[in-house]
Specification:
Blueprint (H helix, E strand, L loop, with lengths): L1 E7 L2 E6 L5 E5 L13 H24 L7 E8 L7 E9 L6 H10 L4 H5 L5 E6 L1
Parallel strand pairs: 5-6
Antiparallel strand pairs: 1-2, 2-3, 4-5
């Protein structure tokens, strides 16, 4: 469960009830906010990037190996016309050079099992770029 509260001036707090971990949001600068924290749509991009990495980590763990310091950089593009929505999420995934070609193939396959990716609206283009 996640508890969310509006704290004023376009800021919100969210608490992960089980752990007590908190995060804060602000509206983006192009939508009346100050850009002092993640925007709500930034959290969607964050969810995609961390889900992709987590799914790869789970697959590697089940195979008995580690993915090491894998990274994902997510670039979010919003539509330029109303209604405001995410148009594209570009995810650049970097894997350690120590992984074998077979391990890389496994990881490239399992990212399609990312629940966030599967649950995003089909109108959002998702580009996975492997570096």
């Amino acid at each position: 469960m996640i508890e969310c509260s509006y704290t004023g001036q376009l800021h919100c707090n969210a608490t992960h009830v089980l752990s007590g971990t908190q995060l804060h949001t602000d509206a983006p600068t192009d939508h009346d906010g100050l850009g002092q924290s993640f925007s709500p749509t930034d959290l969607i991009a964050t969810a995609l990037g961390t889900c992709v990495l987590t799914i790869m980590g789970i697959a590697a763990k089940r195979q008995g190996w580690e993915i090491g310091e894998a990274n994902a950089v997510v670039e979010k593009t919003m539509t330029s016309k109303a209604p405001r929505q995410i148009q594209n999420l570009k995810v650049v995934i970097s894997l350690p050079m120590s992984l074998t070609d077979a391990q890389r193939r496994v990881l490239k396959h399992v990212v399609n099992d990312c629940p966030v990716k599967r649950n995003l609206d089909p109108s959002i283009t998702i580009d996975l770029v492997w570096s």
